[in-house]
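Comment thread on ticket #2218

A.B. wrote:
> Attaching the input chain for the structure job we discussed in standup.
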Amino acid sequence: MVQIEILTADQIPYYETQLAELLMDAVDSGASVGFLPPLALHEARDYWRGLRDALRGGNRRVLVALGSDGVIGSVQLGLATMPNARHRAEVMKLFVHRRARGGVLVAG
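C.D. wrote:
> Ran it. Output below, let me know if you need it in another format.
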């Protein structure tokens, strides 16, 4: 069973290594998300640490999909800031680990 959680800035360190591995998997499998392979672990961790300010600012949300062995996916939502658009969000940086693609979870 997959569980979806909305992360706060303070929760990022708890999931940091798993999120970094998710980002590395996405880059290594060809995702065009602003990084070139091979992506080093420290670079991937720095990326997630950098998101903490955006989360604290209230204009970004990070959702994670948790499987039995941890983080298997993530998506970011950029929240609209205009007064007439507060019901909108932009989908940003959608990652799904290779082991969870295609509707089948593969034990990793």
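A.B. wrote:
> Thanks. Noting for the ticket: The two ends are 15 Å apart (CA to CA).
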